[in-house]
Amino acid sequence: MQTKESNTIFSHLDSLGKSLDGDLSYDTITRTIYATDASVYKEFPLAVIWPKGVSDLKKIIAFASKEKTSITIRAAGTSLAGQVVTNGMIVDISRYMKNIIEINEKEMWVRVEPGVVLDELNMQLKEHGLFFGPETSTSNRCNLGGMVGNNS
Ligand SMILES: Cc1cc2nc3c(=O)[nH]c(=O)nc-3n(C[C@H](O)[C@H](O)[C@H](O)COP(=O)(O)OP(=O)(O)OC[C@H]3O[C@@H](n4cnc5c(N)ncnc54)[C@H](O)[C@@H]3O)c2cc1C
User: Fold this and answer.
1) Domains of the chain
2) Which ligand 1 atom minimizes the distance to the CA of 78?
3) Whose CA is nearest to atom 27 of ligand 1?
4) pLDDT tens readout for residues 70-97
5) Residues 38, 91: Cα–Cα separation, whole Å
6) Whole-model pTM?
């Protein structure tokens, strides 16, 4: 059952969604899908957001601060200990923020958005004779942002 308070937050979420370049959803199916990761934990998130860049992220952070709710960034969701399960807002960076921005072959570094999949990065690095070190079992799924977050 929706209370007066929950109706208010959902109308505020509608306003946030309209201001974003990316997408926002709080329908029951989406929230159910995002209620778990690869762990056994389950929690129903308030909403799921797919940002398209830094400008969206700033708006989401300002919204969370004003509405006193939380943000959990989700990459591939392969965490095993409930890292991307929350009753606040899930911010999924794997849909749009997955560009490899720059490969510096000479100095051997890359600049990427956090949603780049490890195997996809290494496929591109191979052409330059390079390889990004950490070899997680989930390399065909996990994203660079999630790997950093988990210290993979
Ligand atoms: C079968 C299996 C095998 C695995 N094997 C390994 C292994 O060999 N080695 C290993 O280290 N791990 C392993 N894992 C765990 C997991 O796959 C890795 O930790 C993986 O790197 C997580 O990446 P992800 O993209 O799924 O991150 P997610 O699970 O989506 O996120 C991980 C953490 O990072 C945070 N995060 C994500 N993106 C950002 C961002 N942009 N900014 C700030 N925080 C962010 C999240 O909030 C969360 O706390 C395994 C998991 C499974 C299911």
Assistant:
1) 4-92 (3.30.43.10), 100-150 (no CATH)
2) 26
3) 146
4) 999 999 999 999 999 999 999 999 999 9
5) 17
6) 0.95
